[in-house]
Amino acid sequence: MDHKTLLRIDKVSAWLGIAWVITYALTFIVLGNNLPPAQASWTGQELVDNFYLPHRTQIMIGMSLAAFFGFLYAALSILLTTLMWKRERGNHTLSMMQLIGGCFTAWTLIQSPVLWAWSASVSGTEINPDLIKMATTLGWYMINMIYAITTMQCFALGVFTLADKSKNLIFPRWAAIFAFFSGVTFSTETVLPFFMTGPLAYGGLWNFFGAAVFWFAFFLVYNISAIRFLNKHGIEAPIEIGAIDEPAAEQRVQREAVATF
């Protein structure tokens, strides 16, 4: 591929990150009727009567779309990996940690809405409300309690941001504050099963709204930084340790070929 095509692909991937923030907020939060979410303390029947049945079609549409748009989180994560990869010389631990953390996070953003879409679709049928309660709770636990994979992504980006000694920085130094702080705020999700009400419940003021706000802010900061870098500097050629030894490597191959002949 030529340089312009590669740059165009990178820019599209970067803007897909912005698209994720907008579409996921609209589908998961607004259409999904998560302002606020259902109360963890509700029984199965209360959950069906107070949450799913009054907004059944809206929730089905919102969560079905959220399950689709969740993959956009992976698009930007992959782009960030390629940008980091070209700066890491020989050791790509941070970029791989960021990639794996971002892709697994994208999976949870898809998987949990699927459970909530199913819960809405079977509400008011012969399905036991307690099963709907189980699926709903499982969805919240899965999207929240496996936060460590997202924290890994945040910390990998934060460390890279501070360690990058290049003249043209991809991410500003202060962006690391958002990365580290966002990663740390998820730690309260560990106690999720112990709180059915209050700020630490899965629909609580902190464990839902607080963590989400900082996470979206972290994502936007790195997303916008990537767009600005691509617009200003384009794409960089990969820099590998082995690149400086190419002449020697070529001579070695030639010697081996002659010896074999």
Overall SS class: mainly alpha
Number of strands: 0
Largest beta-sheet characterization: none
| Poorly predicted sequence stretches spanning 5 or more consecutive residues | 240-250, 252-261
What is the gist of this entry?
The chain is built from ten helices and no strands. The longest helix is centred in the middle third of the chain and has 30 residues.
Describe this structure in words.
The protein is mainly α and 261 residues long. It is built from ten helices and no strands. It has one domain. The chain is elongated, with a radius of gyration of 23 Å. Keywords: Membrane, Transmembrane, Transmembrane helix. This is DUF4386 domain-containing protein.
Considering the chains and any ligands shown, give keywords for the structure:
261 residues; disordered C terminus; mainly alpha
